[in-house]
Amino acid sequence: MNSHLPVTLLTGFLGSGKTTLLNRLLCDLQRPAVLINEFGATPLDQALIQQRNIPLMTLSGGCLCCQVKDSLIPILKNIYMAWQRAENPAFDQLIIECSGVVSPESVLRILLHERWLSSRYRVRTVITTVAIPWAMEQLQCFAEVRSQLNWADTVVLTQGDLASPDQQAELQTHLQAHYPAVPHLEAIQGDVDVKTLLNPLVLFRSMPSGPDPADHPFRSVSLQIGPNLSLASLQAALTAILARFGTGIVRMKGIVPDTDTQTDWVIQAVHGHLYPPTRLPRHVGSPRVGLLVIITAGNAQPLADALMALLGNQLTPTVLRVH
Ligand SMILES: [Zn+2]
């Protein structure tokens, strides 16, 4: 058996379509294991993974490149040892979905420099998702987005259907000017050429050096939503919140169970833009209460206060966590 476990890093800013891409990858891969890192304190992504019979681990409540970095080494060691020891391992590769605010060099530094891990894992590729409509603004505002592009082996462009021709052209010009050697492909309605994506021609990988990136400016608010709140009332409250805080709300993601129809509603907003809710079939592991995570650029307390003023009487107790 090969002694190196291949690992794919999936990065991309908040709301750029990493989970959608992960679901697409999982359709084609035979035996992957998945490690999901979420910035918000309440893990949601695992409920959005369509493939149910794969080894799946989560690290939530902080970012892999800083707050929960110390947990990464022991987790990776355990995953490797489980792979080595099993006679018929349940997985033959690992995919790490990084939180949307990760600066990937910190994770690469662990995989490529940590003495024990570096001789046991092989970095297969680094894939970075970029949402076309908001990319140029986010590149200017957030060092994390620049870092994610700097370390990409392949860039996957998403949400082209929401982008104007100008936004498309501006991003293409930027990528050609700054990352001419990095291939980029566009996901069309979530679909992408997985073979090309997982087998990039990486001739040379620069080694991360220098200090870890500075602290992220992001904070999150997580809340549980009681069963007495209708989807329409929640939508109205979120629309009001988005109108007030605008692009200060970088990402909003939630799952609201609908007990009558045995489906869940998935709520999403990116860069101040609220998407229509989509339905998700219920499965084992679906949350029984409504969960919502909102990530802000900067202090989240004013947003938490505004939410409590709008929804406080309709949330279950012990609802709100700000971090
Ligand atoms: Zn971090």
SSE blueprint and pairings:
Layout lengths: L4 E8 L5 H11 L3 E7 L6 H4 L7 E5 L8 H17 L7 E5 L6 H10 L1 H4 L2 E11 L3 H7 L1 H8 L3 E5 L6 H14 L5 E3 L7 H5 L19 E8 L5 H15 L3 E10 L4 E8 L2 E2 L3 E4 L8 E8 L3 H11 L9 E2 L1
Parallel strand pairs: 1-4, 1-5, 2-3, 2-4, 5-6, 6-7
Antiparallel strand pairs: 8-13, 8-14, 9-10, 9-13, 10-11, 10-12
The structure holds zinc ion.
Order of helices and strands: EHEHEHEHHEHHEHEHEHEEEEEHE
Shape: globular
Which molecules other than protein and nucleic acid are bound?
Answer: zinc ion
Total number of domains = 2
Q: Quick one: CATH superfamily of the largest domain? A: P-loop containing nucleotide triphosphate hydrolases
Distance between the termini: 44 Å
Written overview of the protein:
There is one protein chain. This protein is α/β, with parallel strands linked by helices. The protein has two domains: 5-198, Rossmann fold; 218-322, Hypothetical Protein Yjia, Chain: A,domain 2, CATH 3.30.1220. The strands form two sheets. It has a seven-stranded parallel beta sheet, sandwiched between helices. Strands 8, 9, 10, 11, 12, 13 and 14 form a seven-stranded antiparallel beta sheet that branches. The mean pLDDT is 88. Helix 6 (135-141) packs across helix 7 (143-150). 33% of the residues lie in helices and 27% in strands. It is globular and about 55 Å long. It has helices at residues 18-28, 45-48, 69-85, 104-113, 115-118, 135-141, 143-150, 165-178, 194-198, 231-245, 301-311; strands at residues 5-12, 32-38, 56-60, 93-97, 121-131, 154-158, 184-186, 218-225, 249-258, 263-270, 273-274, 278-281, 290-297, 321-322.
